[in-house]
Amino acid sequence: MAEIKTSRSKRLFTTGGIAFLILGIALYFLKAPMGLNRKIYDLPVFLIIIGICFALKGFMAKDKTEEEASLAGKTFTEFLTNNAILLAMLVLVIVICILQPRFMQIRVALDILTQSSTKLIMALGICFTLLIAGTDLSAGRMVGLAAVISASMMQTATYANRFFPDLPQVAVWMPIIIAILACMVFGALNGFLVAKYDMHPFIATLAVQVIIYGACSLYFDMPPNNSQPIGGIRPDFAQLGQMRLLSGIYQGFPGISILIPIAVVICVIIWFILNKTVFGKNVYAIGGNREAAVVAGINVFKNIMGIFILASCLYGIAGVLEAARTAGATNNYGNGYELDAIAACVVGGVSLNGGIGKVGGIIMGVLIFTIIQYGLQFINVSPMWQQVIKGVIIAVAVAIDLTKYRRK
After folding, report:
1. d(Cα 264, Cα 275) in Å, to the nearest integer?
2. How many secondary structure helices (H) and strands (E) does the chain include?
């Protein structure tokens, strides 16, 4: 019988987590007496959180046989390669913290999570299309469509430039459902073009993207609005994107945006769909080898239709939340969002060749891009340089993905 050994990664995460935890607790109690409040801000809290996460990961990791542990040791170089983007981000964060210690605040971390929430919901939708070796270029325009439709029906009765002057004050859920259903109609069109005519998703979704933008612009230009930005949003609708939870838990705590728990719940639902349902297993099977999926008896047409409809539902939710968060909308909302979502998925380990990708990786990919963008703005890096850095990250991530695919 093979001897069971504690793997190197298990020991590393466990000991590292405990070390971070001890350091965080020590700094927490020593920062005030040593006058470090303005130098390290909330760093002790972050160290404690990181320590707990690392320690839990170490405790929950399974022990391996001697042969498996030996194999894991040989793949350490691969580990560094596969996590190059994450390691580079950690280095960048350390540099930003040194240059601007105010970055080490809970308020900043909550802002980053808030900005990531709607992007994450959208990325979770687009990951389904990437998992079948496709894409969805219409995603951003669906976000704009949902934002315009929901905002146009959620204006206060006293607002001077109402989109629908004679519309009574309807229940909050009604415009939300209408906006999401409108997106799902276009999602079904995407799925039909791809599944029925075997049209490449790039071309199919590009065509639908143009259709959606045209339709949204026609709707936005309807009199009496005449392409004016939609404002005067009802407070009960705006609360869906602006409410703060636990804001009074202690003095100075800004509260947790309602968008964060909404994104967490959707992450859990999508994880369950991908890992615990027949539909999720079919998605991976179709992306891995479509011909083999057909032979196995999987109804490719129905599953592809389901993929694009589910994705469009998530785009619609993201659009509604964006309209609520900003308390307004225009027909240009969501422009280019799909490219950032695709990039975040790829950085998070979703393969462009299909069949490979996890919800945890997508969360990490979205956070990486948001942290880098927010951090570079924090230290006043030129927006032009930010675009250069983002482009380099995307190129490196795709190169790593193709390298792993060739190895397999």
Report:
1. 16
2. 18, 4
